[in-house]
Amino acid sequence: MAGLYGHRWTSAYGEDPHRTAGREWALVLQDLSRQQIDTGLEACRVSGDDWPPSAPAFRARCFGIPSFEHVRADIAHKTMRFTRLVLEGLDFYLFTRSDQRDAERMLRAAYDYAVARRLDGAELPEEPVAALTKDTTDPPRRHCSPEQRAAHFARIREHLGKSTRETAPADTAAQHANREESTNE
After folding, report:
1. Partner of 119 at 20 to 30 A CA spacing, among 46, 64, 125, 144?
2. pLDDT tens, 51-100?
3. How does pLDDT run across 135-149, given as a tens digit for each residue?
């Protein structure tokens, strides 16, 4: 870490790994594998942060947990697996209908919950197999017979309490049947 952050690391934690800061870091990282620590170091290298992370923040990086800001930026795209873990704890319907302050609070709570779950060993959601698409094809049209159509109009007139003359449709059942025959030819 001193190689990555130089004086900022040594001024914050000292040069001796056996002192208080070194012992605390050892306690925070004691159950992590070498691969997890390498993941955390790589996250530090690519983060662009000028300041070293705290021990808990570094532990989160070892588990592949991105910053809250990265998750907030990814909410619309859901490209990161961790973002999808955050979304599991978020009522997305309410989130999208809330004002900015409430939405931020809801997202922060879901993020903190996802961090805790991940640190407790929760697996990240798998990549989606395929995107869901809305079926935009029209269902097949069903035409009723002229007799059924006349019966429907009669029930409507009866329901409305109107006489046949007051609500006679513009075309009669016979006209409708003639039109059907001409379109089928």
Report:
1. 46
2. 888 888 899 999 989 889 999 999 988 888 999 999 999 998 999 999 99
3. 777 777 778 888 988
Task: Copy the structure tokens of residue 135.
Answer: 């079926």
The answer to pTM > 0.85 is: no
Q: Which residues of 69-78 are buried (b: 16+ CB within 10 A; e: fewer)?
A: eebbebbeee
What is the C-alpha separation between 120 and 62, in angstroms, rounded?
Answer: 13
Q: How far apart are CA 101 and CA 56, in angstroms?
A: 27
Q: Of 7, 10, 23, whose CA–CA distance to 55 is shortest?
A: 23
Q: Which residue has the tokens 């197999």?
A: 129
DSSP category for residue 109: H
